[in-house]
Amino acid sequence: MKRAVEGIYKNEGKIILNEDVPFKGKSKVLVVFLEDYKEKADWKERLMKTFGAWDDNRDAE
């Protein structure tokens, strides 16, 4: 029987399930992260791509 259980991953490498599971002993699992993983450098790269994006015919003064 396959069963899906929601939980939360913590930085310490632990997964805390939101409900009890009926399995005893060991069982294979598949972990799928539901939120996109973005590295800290990713936001900097996206910010840098916005420079020069404003198009206007006025000068800086």
**Number of strand segments:** 2
The profile of the biggest β sheet is: 2 strands, antiparallel
- Which consecutive residue ranges, at least 5 long each, have pLDDT under 50? none
Number of domains: 1
- Portion of residues in beta strands equals 5-15%
Shape: rod-shaped
How many angstroms separate the termini? 69 Å
Helix content: 10-25%
Q: How large is the count of helical segments?
A: 1
**Gyration radius, rounded:** 22 Å
| SSE topology string | EEH
Secondary-structure content class: alpha+beta
**Lateral strand order in the biggest sheet:** 1-2
Whole-number mean pLDDT:
80
Q: How is the topology of this model organized?
A:
Elements: E1 7-10, E2 14-17, H1 40-50
Antiparallel strand pairs: 1-2
Protein architecture, described:
The mean pLDDT is 80. The N and C termini lie far apart (69 Å). A hairpin with a 3-residue loop joins strand 1 and strand 2 (14-17). It is built from 1 helix and 2 strands. The chain has one domain. The chain is rod-shaped and about 70 Å long. By secondary structure, it is an alpha+beta fold. It has a two-stranded antiparallel sheet.
Which labels suit this protein?
about 60 residues; alpha+beta; two-stranded antiparallel sheet; 2 strands; about 15% strand
Summarize the structure.
It is built from one helix and two strands. With 61 residues, the chain is α+β, with helices and mostly antiparallel strands.
